[in-house]
Amino acid sequence: MKPVRIFNVVPSLPEPLEPLRELAYNLRWAWDHDSIELFRRLDSDLWDSTGRNPVQMLGSIDQMRLVAAAADDSFLAHLERVSRALEARMAGQNSWFRRVHAPAGNLLVAYFSLEFGLTECLSIFAGGLGVLAGDHVKSASDLGVPLVGVGLLYQQGYFRQYLSQAGWQQEEYATNDFHNLPLRPLARPDGKPLTIEVQFPGRAVTARIWWAQAGRVPVYLLDTNVAANSPADREIAGELYGGDNEMRIKQEILLGIGGYRALEAAQVRPAVYHMNEGHSAFLSLEHVRRLMERHQLSFAEARELASPSLIFTTHTPVEAGHDYFAPDLMDRYFTEYYQELKLNRHEFLALGRRNMDDQNERFCMTVLAMRLAASRNGVSKLHGEVSRRMWQGIWPGVPVEEVPIGHVTNGVHLRSWISNEMNQLYDRYLGPKWREAANGVIWKRVETIPAEELWRTHERRRERLVAFARRRLRDQLKRRGAPQSEIDAAEEVLNPEALTIGFARRFATYKRATLLLRDTARLERILCDAKRPVQIIYAGKAHPRDDGGKELIQRIVSLARDPKFRRHVVFLEDQDMAVSRYLVQGSDVWLNTPLRPLEASGTSGMKAAANGALNLSTLDGWWDEAWRAPRPDSESIGWAIGNGAPYHDPSQQDQVEAEALYDLLERDVVPMFYELGPDRLPRRWIAQMKGCLKNLCPTFNTHRMVREYTERFYLPAFERFGRLEADSAAASRALSSWMNLVRCEWPRVCVEAVEEGSPAAASATAKVGDLVGVRARLRLGALSPADVTVELYLGALDASGHITEPATFPMRHAASPGNGEHIFESTGVPCCRSGLQGYTVRVLPHHPDLASRFLPGLITWAS
Fold first, then answer.
1. Domain assignment present for 658
2. CA 531 → CA 526, 670, 836, distances in Å?
3. pLDDT tens digits, residue range 244-274?
4. Which residues, listed in sequence order, are joined to residue 797 by a DSSP beta bridge?
5. What's the distance, CA 802 to chain centroid?
6. How far is the C-alpha of 372 from the C-alpha of 311, rounded, in Å?
7. How far apart are the first and last CA of the chain?
8. Per DSSP, what are the bridge partners of residue 793?
9. Same domain (yes/no): 256, 290
10. Cβ pair 182, 195 in contact under 8 A
11. Integer Cα distance of 4 and 6 in angstroms
């Protein structure tokens, strides 16, 4: 039955408690322990049962509790303290950005992501990508970086996981009640909902704009479940990662193009756009289109203007993880759009193809983002290397190590993931400035924490993890219809004093969740030792269409039912942020076993490390970087499984690394944990915990990450875009005109001859320290010497005769003798090492406004 009138019911708060309303709608409570304790004081059980949702909690709490709290001087003092802290934080007078980068006061960054993991009650995320986006937003808020988020508001969000009696993952979807979430709709001046439209085949799709305030950062979210849309279109923002490829392109059009228009409708004017993964890459086209309209530019001119303001972060080191759309699907959704861009079909589709001339190649969102964004990065040092190899084809002729894809290693928002007890410990011994996170000097104060205090704090968290796991296991067994004997036995699983290993992540097959189960006889000896027991707690979801991942879960659940392992192995269903927090805060060891190099970064181990857990991981993603980083006195921070050696046979790799894992547990991990001194403290283990905190926390956090994005990408992008847009985009027009000339003339650019300009260059033998001089004779067509950079490319030769570990040296223009010939010289380049060396000469385009040295297809090497 449809209603004849709709109205919204809001919580009724006594006047003294009215500040609770504003606190509830600002998600800063999600990472502020004092705010969380304030809401817990009202009703701790209700706080937990509502999924830590203060809006729903205030709307359903017993009114007498509110009346009592309004008369409680202690509660009111606590409320005033939290309210004042939020007010001061929102003012941001002393934020890092304002202190260090005040002249860039007009900077505003729009951060687009298909998912945001801000808090568990706002179910618009699936896993690591969304949690990383949420942590990015939180650190931007803490640091005062002017940033807004843009995403989709899913009616159902990601699925809830439960297991069948056979241990097979099942999925169910709960509907988000937007009016009982910490969200507010944007409204027009007349009070009606603020909406935008996006053109789809034969119709316009309407989206309503909501916003969540995360500290200082607003996150704008688009909802298509509105009356103006057809039933099918109302489902576009219905489910995260649901549906087929056509649903995916609809969601990505809504995110990229609709999200861009939502900011315009909200009168938000970013100068810089950050695409978190390729899902939002269509925003780059909308940015170009709007600049064409605003400044009456051609596509080429607007592209040169837009490119410096676009930043793209890729998270996926495997081909299957990138979005591809068939040409006919692109035709269906973009024929009118590319005409608005004044492009023909071939020109448009070429933007998303590695080989721009391959008419059959599918359109790739990552390629689109790579081509249009001036700045691109992976999410760890190793992932940067992998990405340069993956996407080298976009820049033909550019050596893989120089492909213009850098890296910014991911981090975690420490205050969102550490326990309240660790928060208090850090406040007491490190001082409040530890919250700025990226200060290594402050983290050295970890040494002043008494060993017994650090250990007792950690033991309390392990006890809470075990109690939580027992409750959770009992509840999930009841839901599954397990026998009462099995439900009762849940009270006996795990040991609050035993070495506890945590494993919680997405159950993709490459993450090898069952590597530890490869030899169950050996595993039994490790786990079931009466004097030195070990236990492992698993959690995680497989993608609904990933039967391989579901089989891994089923195998773990089957093992956990085995009487030999029942007390030592537990699988917790429906991993969410609450489950993750318990695990990272209470585990002694964090296990991570991805197949190198398929883990782009991984952040769960960083969360565990911030709580003092020790990582036990293969050398992939962030752990490869952390493990190889220099440390004072070679302080230990955990353990590496294997040495990162490449394998051609995955089965052999599994076998070798499983053996290495068992060896580490038997010889190092378990003995060290149970090695107690006269004071009953595992002193060597505690020393490793301190080494982990000192060496990892200052680096692997999102405060450092966001500062890096700000200083390496956001601020330079803001400056370049402002320079190119000034004077009706005059510099952009000039750059585009120059680019047209360069692309037209580049086929005529050649290195005619390379001549030795010194004895060292001419001789087959030279001494270390001798100077190499080289002269190159070039033809540049209609280009001038100022339009190019000519470089000497010098390095050692490998066994196949290729230059390795090269160094480049600029060559100066020496003469233009006429006849279209130009001479460039390099003098005084020293031979720095012995061995077989070689050199060549290369030519690149040069312009002061170019954001990148390397442009696709524009590099010429001496033959």
1. yes
2. 11, 11, 60
3. 999 999 999 999 999 999 999 999 999 999 9
4. 803
5. 35
6. 9
7. 77
8. 808, 840
9. no
10. no
11. 7
Strands 109-112 and 147-152: parallel
CA distances from 615 to 277, 637, 682 (A): 27, 7, 17
What are the Cα distances from residue 307, in Å, to 65, 112, 372?
56, 16, 6
Least Cα distance to 310 among 358, 377, 378, 357 occurs for: 377
Give the DSSP H/E element, type plus range, for residue 273: strand 272-276
Q: What is the arrangement of strands in the sheet containing 534-539, beginning at the earlier edge strand?
A: 569-572, 534-539, 499-504, 589-592, 614-618, 638-641
Q: Which two tokens stand for residue 342?
A: 């004044």
- Considering the domain architecture, whether residues 332 and 251 belong to the same structural domain is answered as no
Query: Is 433 inside a domain boundary?
Result: no
Q: How many domains does the chain have?
A: 5
C-alpha R_g of the chain: 29
| More confident: 232 or 762 | 232
Both 189 and 283 in one domain: the answer is: no
- Concatenated DSSP letters of 320-343: GGS-EE-HHHHHHHHHHHHHHTT-
pTM of structure:
0.95
And the tokens for 10? 């809001």
Question: Coil, strand, or helix at residue 196?
Answer: strand
Please tell me whether residues 762 and 792 are part of one structural domain: yes
Res 817 pLDDT > 70: yes
Question: Do 393 and 354 meet the contact criterion of CB atoms below 8 Å apart?
Answer: yes
Closest by CA to 207, choosing from 167, 257, 249, is: 257
- 160 phi and psi, to 5 degrees? -90, 140
Is 23 part of a structural domain of the chain? yes
Residues 217 and 123 in one domain: yes
pLDDT in tens, 32-85: 999 999 999 999 999 999 999 999 999 999 999 999 999 999 999 999 999 999
Residue type, 422: M
Domain shared by 816 and 767, yes or no: yes
Contact 300, 315 (CB under 8 A): no
CATH number at residue 370: 3.40.50.2000
The confidence score (pLDDT) of residue 233 equals 97
Q: How many angstroms from the chain centroid is the CA of residue 112?
A: 12
Determine contact, residues 219/151, Cβ cutoff 8 Å.
Answer: yes
Shared-domain flag, residues 574 and 594: yes
Range of the domain at 323: 273-413+726-745
Structure tokens at 627: 């493990």
Beta-bridge partner residues of 792: 809, 841
Cβ atoms of 573 and 163 within 8 Å: the answer is: yes
- The one-letter code for the residue type at 553 is I
Residue of 312, 120, 112 lying closest to 219 (CA atoms): 112
Contacts of 758 (CB under 8 A, 6+ apart): 770, 771, 772, 773, 774, 827
Two structure tokens written together for 507: 């159950």
One domain, residues 543 and 665 = yes
Q: How many CB atoms lie within 10 A of CB 52?
A: 19
The pair of three-digit structure tokens given for residue 114, joined into one six-digit string:
């298909």
Q: Which residues contact 475 (CB under 8 A, 6 or more apart)?
A: none
